[in-house]
From TrEMBL:
Protein name in UniProt: Beta-1,6-galactofuranosyltransferase
InterPro entries xref list: Gtf3_C, Gtf3_N
Keywords in alphabetical order: Transferase
Short name of one Pfam family: Gtf3_N
Coiled coil: none
Amino-acid biosynthesis recorded as keyword: no
Glucosyltransferase 3-like C-terminal domain boundaries: 171-329
Record has Nucleotide-binding as a keyword: no
Record domain Glucosyltransferase 3-like N-terminal: where: 7-152
Amino acid sequence: MANANYVISWHDTVNHGGSKAKQDVENFLKAEGYREIDTPANNISKVLFVYFKFPRIVKSIHNSTILFQFPSGKPFLRKKMMESIRNSDNKLVVLIHDIESLRLNHEPGREKENAEEIDLLKKCDGIISHNEAMTEWLHQQGVMVPITNLGIFDYDNPQKVNTDGKYDGSICFAGNLEKSSFLNKLQLKHSLVLFGSHPADSYHEHLKYAGMFPPEVLPQKLTQNFGLVWDGPDVNSCTGPYGEYMRYNDPHKVSLYLSSGIPVIIWREAALANFIQQNNLGILIDDLTELDKVLDHLSAEEYAAMKENVVNFSGRLRGGHYIKQAMKNISKATDGGDNA
């Protein structure tokens, strides 16, 4: 095949919000001229493809960059795919979506899986990490290949940007509601509208469940003033494996909110907190029990300025600015600037 750059399209057998981020990356890069290496959706077909067809495809490509979105597939499949790329004359660049060895690093019995995951990342030609905190953690694990920071995930959002600047202190939250068990303890006087799977049987009176919608439809439903970004079982801080993970990752729901024109409320110790503060895209908070007071003290003028920033910023996420820039940066870092 002719010299070009490639992105691997990995189809999940179950469609869920988690596949949205990968699909967006594929779409944004294909619009930049990247070619797609498509994979089958059926599980048996995947195995046959990875072991027999994929190595032949990779060997037919020369002196190109191949982007692997990590993690994709079962561990044995991703290991085989990454080995196939490394055994060719192409460059293997990994875009990290999640690192289980970071999110679940305190879980007993995972030592072998954690070590294998880090070993795979050590053997890449280059990595696109979420942010400085995640990159520093990778360095601490001995991953010394070139790394560039994404900054924030882009979001291909087909819905009209919400430009309504009227302030009433309303909030929305989108995600796996079962995992977000802090909601079961949360009491607010402001309205909080919940979207997603596995809602509880009941919530505090000002928390209202509004249903589950496909990623391309959901932004249309987000008409509130703020989108909440919080995780774990507690309202006083983000705790537990998923809460602590916010110190390192870029939650995709941040991009959902911002691309929709919705400022965010995020934990002050989250990795994305500085990004939000520096760009005036939302509010940082230590404790959700303080949220009512914070919203009461926010003036309509302050909210209007924040809202305007978010509406302007949404265009960057909708256009794939961050993944495009990250691919250029990692290409230079791996001495492949002429390929990007």
